[in-house]
Design goal:
29% strand, elongated, six-stranded mixed β-sheet, single chain, 409 residues, alpha/beta, 8 helices
């Protein structure tokens, strides 16, 4: 087994090599909130207001003064959200108040309506009253000037409504990464066109384009490049002149017509091109004159896996995103036997489900061949099996990495 894995570097070493020299983009633009979906904050965002902006009621009930809590209280008026009580507040009375309504001056507590007894136009309190109860103070959630989002946060359905709730209409974000993609191989045919003998569809570039769109990148699609040195050289030069990152699919193995490695050596430099992972061993990483280069394997599953595990973290760092790009792994039991040969870190596709006892367990999606892309459509996680591990029996503990939004439906 050592002869077959000699010269292969680990996933961790590959990631360290890729991420260490990267410098995030610095160019910024200011966008409206709807335009900023999926973008990365360029600087910290602070709140222009207190939240809540005024003291308000946390309940439907009655605003009162503590000294009068044991008396029968007439209802002096009503306070609603957006329509505060503005009249005089006579002694021996309370004010009917609704959730979110501004607290009338002098209020010391709000009693929920379920803790009162109705006596015609008056009420009696039926529970103990504590000073400050059911009152949300101004700035209790967010104080004016407090940081609500750090720099490097990807803006989505949780972050943008938060900014909207603060009255923030625009946000400064880092520019989009420009990523050039192309596939190599005479056997490839664009999706939607008839296949000639010996041809296959170029699904890898299609899949990569979708994932880049999800990551908010500006995609420069150079199409299919035939197995010709001059055509490939021209594609590399064009991509390098336009993009921050160049991604190719195919041409990084050891076949006679695989020119990508040769072009990379000629036009830039190679950091590595063999990984101790399965699928995805023939993955290349290097530097061109003006951009970074990632060469994905030709097999569809290998291409998707290496993009997910290696290219995704690279793009996240270049884009200025802080924090991990991949979900944390968790330990669960295998629901069935998993086949595995020692030698490479294995990413098998699985389904993470709860069994009848409510415990999480992982099921295989079936055939794990690098050409079987249906294993992705059936899966919701990777089953991550250690490099030296062999077959896994049902009931054994394994590491599972749930898919993030890049591979979720």
């Amino acid at each position: 087994m050592e002869a077959f894995t000699a010269g292969l570097i680990s996933l961790d070493d590959a990631l360290a090599t890729m991420l260490a020299p990267l410098t995030p983009v610095t160019e910024t633009e200011t966008l409206t909130l709807p335009e900023a979906v999926g973008r990365i904050t360029a600087c910290a965002v602070t709140s222009p207001i207190d939240v809540p902006p005024f003291a308000n009621s946390a309940m439907d009930g009655y605003a009162l003064r503590l000294a009068e809590a044991g008396s029968v209280l007439n209802v002096a008026g009503k306070a609603f959200a957006g329509a505060p009580y503005k009249g005089e507040w006579p002694a021996g009375s309370c004010i009917r108040i609704m959730t979110g309504a501004p607290i009338p001056p002098g209020t010391e507590a709000v009693v929920m309506q379920e803790q009162t007894e109705q006596l015609g136009e008056a009420i009696r309190i039926t529970a103990e009253v504590v000073k400050g109860q059911n009152i949300r103070l101004a700035g209790e959630d967010i104080v004016q000037g407090a940081t609500v989002l750090e720099a490097g946060v990807r803006l989505g359905a949780a972050e943008l409504p938060l900014l909207a709730s603060l009255g923030v209409a625009e946000v400064k974000v880092l520019r989009k990464l420009r990523v050039a993609i192309f596939s190599t191989g005479d056997e490839l045919q664009p999706v939607g066109k008839p296949l000639a003998e010996g041809q296959i569809y170029d699904t890898n570039r299609f899949a990569v384009h979708i994932m880049l769109d999800k990551l908010g990148c500006e995609v420069i699609d150079l199409g299919i490049i035939r197995d010709d040195e001059q055509a490939l050289r021209q594609a590399f030069s064009q991509a390098d002149s336009q993009a921050d990152v160049v991604i190719s699919s195919g041409g990084v193995s050891v076949g006679e017509a695989d020119y990508t490695k040769k072009m990379l050596e000629e036009l830039g430099e190679i950091s590595f091109w063999k990984l101790a992972i399965k699928p995805g061993k023939p993955f290349a990483f290097g530097r061109l004159k003006a951009s970074w280069f990632c060469g994905l394997p030709g097999n569809p599953v290998s291409a998707a896996l290496t993009f997910y595990q290696l290219v995704q973290p690279l793009l996240a760092k270049l884009a200025g995103q802080q924090g991990p790009a991949l979900p944390p792994r968790q330990r669960v039991k295998a629901a069935s036997k998993l086949k595995k040969s020692p030698g490479r870190l294995d990413f098998q596709r699985g389904r993470l489900l709860r069994n009848a006892q409510g415990e999480l367990e992982v099921h295989t999606t079936g055939s794990q061949g690098s050409h079987v892309f249906s294993s992705f459509s059936l899966a919701n996680c990777f089953i991550v099996l250690e490099r030296d591990r062999g077959d896994v029996e049902a009931g054994e503990w394994v590491d599972v990495e749930p898919f993030n939004l890049l591979l979720e439906g």
